Amino acid sequence: MADMSHQVDLSTCDLEPIHIIGRIQSFGWLISCSSDWIVNHVSANCPDLLGIDIGEIVGSPVTRFISASAIHDIRTRLQVLSDGDSVERLFEVDLHDDGRLFDIAIHASGRSFVLEIEQSEGGRRRDYVSYVRPMINRMRSTDSVEELCKSAARHLRGLTGFDRVMVYRFEQSGAGEVIAESLNGGVDSFHGLHFPASDIPAQARRLYARNILRIITDIDDPTVPIVPATNPDGVPLDLSMSGLRAVSPIHIEYLRNMGVKASMSVSIMRRGKLWGLMACHHYAPLTLSFSVRTASELFGEFFSYLLEQKESDYVYATRERSLRVHDEIMARVAGGGELLDTFGEFGESIDSVVPFDGIVGWVDGQFVQQGSTPNREQFEKLARFLNTAGASTVWSTDNIGALHEPAKEWIDKAAGLLALPVSRSPRDYIVLFRKELLQEVAWAGNPEKSVELGPNGARLTPRKSFEIWKEERRGYSKPWTTEEIQTAESLRVTLLEVVLRLADAANNEREEAAKRQDTLIAELNHRVRNILNLIRGLVSQSKDGASTIDEFAELIGSRIYALARAHDQVTRTDWSPSSLYQLIRTETEAYANESIDRVQINGPDAMIAPTAFTTLALVVHELMTNSCKYGALSDSSGKVHVTISHDSDGALDIDWHESDGPTVRAPTHRGFGSTIIERTIPHELGGRADVSYAPAGLHAAFHLPGRHVAAYDSPTPSPSNTTVQDAETRAHELDLFGGIALIVEDNVIIAMEAEDLLREYGFRDCQIVGSVQSARSIIDTGKVSFAMLDINLGKETSEDIAELLTEKGTPFILASGYGDRSTTANRFPSVPVITKPYSLRDVRSAIVRLPGVKT
């Protein structure tokens, strides 16, 4: 039972008694009170908390057990309870005025109020709720429901620490499918599995719809009875909204057969109905604090809002695509002809809004098919059946064999269909087909894995459930959704319009299409002429800068590529301001990669407006190529110094100064390159350009008005040529990719960001921990080949981990949020340190500097 060391002496007062419910799971107790604060019920182990004989509790005054100040706080929360399915929470309540803190959940149950009490976290309470907002913000950027669910599973696992988190979606029949999953280590994957409705029966689904979060900390934790079992009217206390109540023994057996020791579910609601669950499994007992469970419930509610938004966005996008399909079909038959003349093309258009495995066109006795469909003879029988099913609207089924007996002959080709009548009389159709939805599953774990079978045998396992689902789903296709049927109805109207349209309407459409085409051609002609004029200018002005055809081609190509690189840099940021530092580095890497360390940039980074960026790109390109051909970078000793500064009004100054190279001579005539350097900025940007061909090195000074600069920013460190090119090679030299990449970071958001960077870099097996103890357990396996350690881990530092890794000779780097080096970093002077926030470039640079790597 519970720890008897927590007995308390409680005061009494004049309030009337309450009922108390004791510990339902191992970490909490439950109290049931009537509206006038009389004790109604108590669980058998509640005295563990109260230190009083259970016979003395029922019918006793509540203030005998709870302090007056705590009662005041509880009454305040009762005031704001909205309905029977709402739960209010209090954190760190001094329940007995003795300094011990408890967390409390309050909800109404009939005429009673239920208080669920558990001890608050020891030490500093982790504000897990604050993690929810950045998690939600990260998930907003996902592009689809599938990506959203995958991201949600990953974030919830990071928040709670469960071994497996699944997103489980219910179908209309009550059956379900695991559509997303996040795993820790080598546990089995259930992704893509379908389960019959009996696995989560209707009464359980109704409870999930009311109580958003359910948790089992230990399936072997003994339950305790409620005293008394019923009220004076013989009615048991309704614990539907309780977070501590025990669960069905059948469900416990199901988990036990899977080898799961702890579980949690967070309901996913959509417009007041149960859409699915975020189901969590752990293979050892796992107790989550009240704050973590509250954050998980809040995460689930926000996720439900995002899900509804994503699905609404999908429906809206489908409608938009339907309109485009309408236009495409109308345009394809605008020139006349028969409906089936362009069957293959508009079949592709239909597939973009209503996915199918096969399609048949049946118009005026003409049969056309694509994909997996019945043959002509089989379809003729089906067409006669469809004539009886209704000819004025879309008709669909996901089990045609149950309605049309001959369809069982071609069940291997199609199981479901959606028919679109395309004529007034019941004889012409466009029919979409879907195959039978059955799949084989490749399990991540051992399919013969031993389990502890209960009295109901092996039926209560995911594998057996999947087999039962397959038996139940024989002959069924993927269902046609409401949105797909609505879209098909819109398409039916479109196809009817195609068949029945008048000749003058077709002529009007052709006339309008011709006008739109003329406008498009005129605009295209204008744009092409501008591009041709620009290229013509480059060709014309570059002819004097080359003595051979090859030199001329190289010169023209390099200038065009410079414009393309600048355009790429601008478009990568959605036509937003781009970095001047990055522009200079890009040109350096393109033409002076071996000399990258000899191009030094100083001063703040300038974010150049897109309208000025390509102009500036041409100037930098000419400066760089000129330096590589004739200036400082044409030998092995010269250097280029670029100094960036700005005036008080935001105007940009760029100083390009070359030194230590060959002697410079002023050009005897001005070529196109010189013209670009000297005249482009004044002419196109309204700035100034001063160029001096001093013997010691070229010196150019440029001034751009502030309207061309969006902002100034701190520059990112300039990488050496070995940092970017050789980092992966050097990582292989240390065999960093051969084992586990250990990430030690106490902030789960930052930890997942670090995992993304390391996986992008090439690490295949990344494991995240947030404490020294957890890190030691992984290091002791001997499989860690590289580690990335956050210096500060809240109450502790990573010094002990660093020492252990040093002893084992395992390479690692340190990450710090401090501006200067911390005490921990100073103890390991040869270990590279990266400063938060860091990027993949910073990680690469640090790996190159790891001890033991030859430079």
- Number of β-strand runs: 34
**Secondary structure category:** alpha+beta
Give the class-level CATH name of the largest domain.
Alpha Beta
CATH architecture term of the largest domain: 2-Layer Sandwich
Please mark out the parts with pLDDT under 50 across 5 or more consecutive residues, or reply none: 1-24, 502-506, 720-725
Q: Please, how many helices?
A: 23
Instruction: Give the fraction of residues assigned to helices.
Output: 25-40%
Radius of gyration: 36 Å
- The strands making up the biggest β-sheet line up spatially as 5-6-7-2-3-12
**CATH fold-level name of the largest domain:** Beta-Lactamase
Mean pLDDT: 78
Structurally, the number of domains stands at: 5
Q: What would you call the shape?
A: globular
Into which percentage range does the β-strand content fall? 15-25%
CATH superfamily of the largest domain: GAF domain
Question: How far from one another are the termini?
Answer: 63 Å
**How would a crystallographer describe the biggest sheet?**
6 strands, antiparallel
Describe the structure.
The chain has 855 residues and is of the alpha+beta class. It folds into five domains: 4-119, 2-Layer Sandwich (Beta-Lactamase), CATH 3.30.450; 126-219 and 260-332 and 450-472, Beta-Lactamase (2-Layer Sandwich), CATH 3.30.450.40; 337-347 and 361-438 and 482-501, 2-Layer Sandwich (Beta-Lactamase), CATH 3.30.450.270; 546-713, Histidine kinase-like ATPase, C-terminal domain (Heat Shock Protein 90, 2-Layer Sandwich); 721-848, Rossmann fold (3-Layer(aba) Sandwich), CATH 3.40.50.2300. The protein has 23 helices and 34 strands. The strands form eight sheets. A six-stranded antiparallel β-sheet has the order 5-6-7-2-3-12, covered by helices on one side. The longest helix is centred in the middle third of the chain and has 43 residues, at 290-332. Residues 1-24, 502-506 and 720-725 have low confidence and may be disordered.
